[in-house]
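User: Predict N-acetyl-gamma-glutamyl-phosphate reductase's structure from this.
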Amino acid sequence: MKAGIVGATGYGGLELIRLLSDHPEVESLTLYSTSDAGKSFENLYSHMNTVITQKLEEINPESMQERLDIVFLATPPGVSRELTPKLAGRGLKVIDLSGDLRLTDPQQYTEWYKQEAASEEVLERAVYGLSEWNQKKIKEADIIANPGCYPTASLLGLGPIIQERLAIPETVVIDAKSGVSGAGKNPNPLTHFGHAQENFQIYKVNQHKHIPEIEQQLKTWNDEMSTVTFSTHLVPMTRGIMATIYLKLSEPQTTEQLLQLYENYYSMHPFVRVRQEGQFPCTKHVYASNYCDIGLTIDSRTNRVTIVSVIDNLMKGAASQAVQNMNLQFGIEETAGLQGLPLYP
Ligand SMILES: NC(=O)C1=CN([C@@H]2O[C@H](COP(=O)(O)OP(=O)(O)OC[C@H]3O[C@@H](n4cnc5c(N)ncnc54)[C@H](OP(=O)(O)O)[C@@H]3O)[C@@H](O)[C@H]2O)C=CC1
Ligand SMILES: CC(=O)N[C@@H](CCC(=O)OP(=O)(O)O)C(=O)O
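Assistant:
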């Protein structure tokens, strides 16, 4: 495959380069940039010195359609909405890592993203790329809306219990925490070292754009689902997301039964690992890998379930899930290029 990355100079782009350079089925990788076209990649990022020596190129949809089989858009919101219609088709597949194509309702996008939505035609063509849950459609799609980092952790943690209708819908609370790289490469007041270091902050309370994305998918699993409480926190670490999820059960279950349900659902999915009873994952268990690790327990006093789901935001939350989706789209081994073990400690 001939692959291209728009936004190659960003954090998501860097991870895509790392994965695709090592991918057994990728024969060439072209890197695109709006601000650094013409410069050599190694000169911008010296950790790639002597390894990624090629020059960044200008975005040119026509020549990209001719040259590439797949293009990843690791770009801020608002870019894909314009670029995807010019790229997708004539044999070129698109995987968008931004939120532009995830919400099926354009009005909802405008409400939460505070900008114009993509055209309805593009939104209809885009398939939500939650790899473990949407494989059939992903395999046939030419446009993938790669899920957000928080939604990936939250939805993989909730999928089996929601689809089996075991939760009382209005009781779902997601308490999520992220490392600083979730905010991308540009510093801002929230992520500035002096503020983020040794600090633990809640942000975008009840206003995070991942709320409608999570609710949309929960409703496709169970039409009784409506709203969820979802909170985001910034943790002074570089990578990782932990979503701690609380809900009440609609009928009595044991922890063993629930774990068995999760085991059954994910037994065919090598990147979701369910912990044994009494064990819970932490973010370093999945660091730099495509894994999502899940632990859960039921408090018999309150009849409440606690589910803990961890991912690396830049990997399963962005770049490696995008590569997993590419593998599915091209009918190759789902795990190709993704077998790197987690980095620990
Ligand atoms: N960081 C994370 O953990 C995750 C990020 N995402 C999403 O993925 C996308 C990329 O995120 P991330 O890599 O963190 O962001 P960064 O800010 O680190 O990088 C974004 C890149 O986009 C390029 N860019 C900026 N403006 C334009 C434009 N108008 N047209 C084309 N390219 C442009 C820039 O490269 P250049 O100037 O060279 O063109 C920049 O390096 C975002 O939408 C983000 O929300 C999704 C999941 C997780
Ligand atoms: C720590 C931090 O700031 N995280 C980002 C993650 C969002 C993200 O990556 O957004 P999309 O994938 O939906 O574009 C945030 O909360 O906005």
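The two ends are 34 Å apart (CA to CA).
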